[in-house]
Specification:
With 191 residues, this protein is of the alpha/beta class. It has six helices and seven strands; from the N terminus they run βαβαββαββαβαα. Strands 1, 2, 3, 4, 5, 6 and 7 form a seven-stranded mixed sheet that branches. Strand 1, helix 1 and strand 2 form a beta-alpha-beta unit. It is elongated and about 50 Å long. The model has no long low-confidence stretch (mean pLDDT 93).
Length: 191
């Protein structure tokens, strides 16, 4: 049995993977995160996930490494993590009363395989007023999240409708990931 490494510091990804009852460690390496413009958004986020996984796999080649990345897109415009409160407000104002896409990319690397995939979820927001946007920003929650909101936290109050994988919006399309891990020839360690 080989051990699993999650190449992400995201507390949401760690929690989702922990909930599955498998043993893993967390190792992440800083990489330059730039979406490739020559690729579709789905392929670009898969590429980023693979870059994150590869940076860790290079130092831990005996392990299975999972890398992940998430972007929010509205009409082709990509929203990453806001740089500051002003940018968070602009993002939330843009998402207000619209349907946007949350695209999660995942890469699984081992000596035998490199699997990448993406998952897209449509999220529709209610119309947001300035007071609720300002109050949400004051909570501090939007600052480390793509699109400036967390569906699993206070940001859930903005969501009118969702189509697709909820856990993809949280940070990891966990059901699909688990199904792929189960197909690997060398099983991973369980808790």
């Amino acid at each position: 049995m080989r051990s699993l490494i999650l190449a992400s510091q995201s507390p949401r990804r760690k929690e989702l993977l922990s909930d599955m009852g498998i043993s893993f460690s967390v190792v992440s390496k800083a990489i330059e995160e730039h979406l490739r413009e020559d690729l579709s958004l789905e392929k670009a986020v898969e590429y980023l996930a693979r870059e994150k996984a590869q940076a860790v796999f290079d130092e831990h080649p005996e392990h299975i490494v999972i890398g992940a990345d998430t972007i929010v897109a509205l009409d082709g415009r990509v929203f990453g993590k806001p740089a500051d409160r002003k940018e968070a407000k602009c993002m939330l104002q843009a998402l207000s009363d619209h349907t946007h896409q949350v695209i999660g990319g995942v890469a699984i690397l081992s000596k035998e395989t490199c699997i990448t995939f993406s998952s897209k979820t449509n999220v529709q927001f209610y119309r947001l007023n300035e007071e609720e946007i300002d109050a949400y920003i004051q909570s501090g929650e939007p600052m480390d999240k793509a699109g400036a909101y967390g569906i699993q936290g206070l940001g859930k109050r903005f969501v009118k409708e969702i189509e697709g994988d909820y856990f993809n919006v949280v940070g990891l399309p966990i059901a699909r990931l688990m199904r792929i891990l189960e197909t690997l020839p060398d099983p991973i360690s369980e808790e």
